Amino acid sequence: MTDVLYMTWEHFEEAMRSALAELSKHPLLPDPPTGVYGIPRGGLIVAVTLSHRLSIPWLPEPRPGCILVDDVIETGHTMQTLISNLHKQHPRLHWATWVWISKNLLPQIGYHRYVDPKIWVCFPWSDPLKIEEERRAYHARITREVQASEVR
User: Which residue among 31, 57, 63, 133 sits deepest, i.e. has the most Cβ atoms within 10 Å of its Cβ?
Assistant: First the structure.
């Protein structure tokens, strides 16, 4: 089994304090941001927390000048597609993620922390009993994607 990093709510609080400090210094952060949008599922928890801490609205969809957050980027495909599509509509979109596990998407704008891709992160809102099942499903999905890209 892959090594597992069990994040506690205390780790989450520490990550939020760190993210807030980094975000407050970021030169591309809109002043003030129009709100914060979180990519479902884990991004919602991060977005609501940042919304409260920054006293800005939580957004049900991204809009210009907002902060786009996710809890983790594993392959980068979801974030890359979302950012590409959203930047066409909203060029002033700012994004952030507080755990970075992707080697596929380089951080261009935003706050991030890198975690070794060999480590599986179990967030406080995750079910620790399903870690191995989720990890296997993830690796199977990635293997299928790699094989499909080799056929092209």
Answer: 63
pLDDT in tens, 29-84: 777 788 888 888 888 998 999 899 989 999 998 887 788 888 877 767 777 777 77
Judge whether 148 lies within some domain.
no
Q: How many domains does the chain have?
A: 1
Give the CATH number for residue 82. 3.40.50.2020
Find the radius of gyration of the CA atoms of the chain.
Answer: 16
Q: Counting every residue, how long is the chain?
A: 152
The pLDDT, as a whole number, for residue 64 is 77
- 3-state secondary structure string across the chain: CCEEEECCHHHHHHHHHHHHHHHHHCCCCCCCCCCEEECCCHHHHHHHHHHHHHCCCECCCCCCCCEEEECCECCCHHHHHHHHHHHHHCCCCEEEECCECCCCCCCCCCCCCECCCCEEEECCCCCHHHHHHHHHHHHHHHHHHHHHHHHC
Domain assignment present for 146: no
